[in-house]
Amino acid sequence: MSFLSLLLIATQLISSEPVVEKIEDSELISLFNSLETENRYTNEDISLSIFKKSNPPGSAGISGGHEISYSFYLAVSEYDEYPAQSLFLIGGFINPQYTVETNEKYLALNVKYGVFNDRKSKTYKVTLNKVSVLNP
């Protein structure tokens, strides 16, 4: 695991707000964009594959517990013989559930997360080169 990823997880523990990290490692980008998944979403310009990752025990930041949080790798690719591809890591989500809405210009990833009595929701705008929060 890279230093940047460890730093990302540590930051999540302190802030407990999900963050977005753009992955620059070309081998990882290629790997995640070539894996087969059942969760592939598309619009006219891009395809999005979502991979759920378990974070270390205690990453949920709940005092007295060893509960884990989750992150998602978002593999984004355009359609071409040699497509441009990107990879993003978003997370520290506790008990996440997500849906994806298609739009001509981007894909909207809606994530609901948190403990059962304190659920939050964030919507992310996913494009080829950027993932940003639509409803901060």
Polypeptide structure, described:
By secondary structure, this protein is an alpha+beta fold. It has one domain (3-133). It has helices spanning 3-15, 26-34; strands at 19-23, 40-42, 46-54, 70-78, 85-93, 97-102, 107-113, 120-126, 131-133. A hairpin with a 6-residue loop joins strand 4 (70-78) and strand 5. It is globular and about 50 Å long.
Number of helices: 2
Helix-strand category: alpha+beta
Tell me, rounded to a whole number, the average pLDDT: 86
User: What's the number of structural domains?
Assistant: 1
Portion in helices: 10-25%
Number of DSSP-assigned strands: 9
Low-confidence stretches: none
The description of the largest β-sheet is: 5 strands, antiparallel
Series of secondary-structure elements, N-terminal to C-terminal: HEHEEEEEEEE
Briefly, what is this?
The protein has 136 residues and is of the alpha+beta class. 16% of the residues lie in helices and 43% in strands.
Q: What are the SSEs and their pairings?
A:
Blueprint lengths: L2 H13 L3 E5 L2 H9 L5 E3 L3 E9 L15 E9 L6 E9 L3 E6 L4 E7 L6 E7 L4 E3 L3
Antiparallel strand pairs: 1-5, 2-3, 3-4, 4-5, 6-7, 7-8, 8-9
